[in-house]
Amino acid sequence: MRHRWQLRASLLAAVVSLVSYGLASAESKTKKLFDSYDLDSTRFVFTEAGDTGKEAGWIPIGDDTHKTIIISITRLDVTGGIDIRIQGRSSVPGGRWTKFVLHELNKTEPVARQHITLPTGKFDQLRVGLRIGGSDDASDTGDAAENVTVTYHTFTLR
To answer: Count H helices, E strands: the chain?
Structure first.
């Protein structure tokens, strides 16, 4: 049985081979959603400015096919960990949106890099929400502050 990292390595090697031989091309992009963010909210925030509204933090993903969210938590000084929610939405007739949860997790320990591969289904926008899963000790300033980085990475085969 092959491990998940072996399968990812095989897929990446196949993509590099296709691009190298000119059989396909790939476009890659990366966007930081939170950069060394000090999380202080027990409500989901969707931007570094601490926005919590229903329209906050949505980013268009266009034709992106291979979508990954990368989570890095270098410091975590809260009770109950950090809740992370990845949401997607699709436009529907009448100028409205259908919103859905793509992935949820709770981190109670720091993590160097966790890759979350998103479904390949068609949706128009996504956002990542962060919140403190229990309570904050309110003394998290300077070196004790939470330090969370969230990155959206994609590559699209053409």
So the answer is: 1, 10
pTM of the model: 0.79
> Cβ contacts of residue 126 below 8 Å, gap of 6+?
58, 59, 61, 67, 86, 87, 88, 89, 102, 118, 152
Q: What is the Cα–Cα distance from 58 to 52, expressed in whole angstroms?
A: 11
Question: How far is it, in rounded angstroms, from Cα 133 to Cα 9?
Answer: 34
Interatomic CA distance for residues 85 and 35, integer angstroms: 17
Q: Using 50, 70 and 90 to split pLDDT, how confident is the model at 36? A: very high
Q: What is the pLDDT of residues 72-92, one digit of tens each?
A: 999 888 888 999 999 999 999
The helix or strand, by DSSP H or E, that contains position 11, with its residue range, turns out to be helix 4-20
DSSP code for 106: E
| 39 HSE (CA, 13 A, CB side) | 36
Angstrom distance (rounded) from CA 80 to CA 133: 5
Find the radius of gyration of the CA atoms of the chain: 17
Sign of CA dihedral 35, 36, 40, 43: positive
What CA–CA distance (Å, rounded) separates 31 from 154?
Answer: 9
**79, 134 contact by CB (below 8 A):** yes
What is the spatial distance between Cα 83 and Cα 81, in angstroms, rounded to a whole number? 7
